[in-house]
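Researcher: Can you fold this with zinc ion in place?
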Amino acid sequence: MDNEKNNPPICSYEDSDYQTSFWDKGGREYEDRVEAVALKRLLPKGGRLLLELGAGAGRNTPRYTGYERIILLDYSRTQLEQAQQRLGRSKKYVYVAADVYRLPFINGLFDVATMIRVLHHMTDAPKALEQVRNVMQADGTFILEFANKLNLKSMLRYWLGRQTWSPFTPEQVEFASLNFDFHPKTVRNWLTSLGFRVEKTLTVSHFRMGILKQTLPTSLLVSLDSILQWTGALLQWTPSVFVKARGGSRESAPGDRENVLAFFKCPECGHAPLGNNRTYLLCPKCRNKWEIKDGIYDFREPGNG
Ligand SMILES: [Zn+2]
């Protein structure tokens, strides 16, 4: 039933120990802290409903203080289970396993969405960004981080003949399977064509080099990076770029933000609302069933029976 054209391949972190190996023990305190600085600068102080796309094990979630409710979305169920262990189960957090190319939410729902270290894995980035635009309310705030191909290291490597691809051309580069770097101008064009206005651009991780991270105190690098982040308004030569964009769907979702079940639509046929049978949500139109298990709404594959 699936065909590759409609469903781009997904980079799944299922059963991955990403949180432990990459963040907790991977020598990435510097990256984590400079991301926190950028997020704080771009994120509105508070709001009603925040969608965290690619939430993983919830590394950034505690930074979204001031939001009434946070929807953690990830393709990997095991990552969401780790997030649940970290954050607990409460009304404040809603855990959703789903595909960014087929978001299971009604149009115009969220006032804020964040997508950090996720576009990096998107074969069809414009398609994913369009989905995000649709589920955001008009004039919502979208915080997007992307990996930048036009970074100083890739420029040096290119000039020294150690890298075949050009960092200056607009197309994305897949430097490893399902790992993409993008040109900042291309990302801006995609956002603009979807009706977003880019309000702020910050460059992040200016000192992402092993030798610097090993020899200089992390706090010093974080302080310097914090200052240099503002230069992103003029030029973007860092491996990571954060953008604050405003925009969203022209439709507005019904005002009820209390009832979680009213948030969802069928990712297969787009129908809303879905019927609730406790262990699954049923689409009355296409009859697909979407599992609810251990506090996680699972929209990846329809259930049987
Ligand atoms: Zn359906």
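Model: Folded with zinc ion in place. The longest helix spans residues 29-42.
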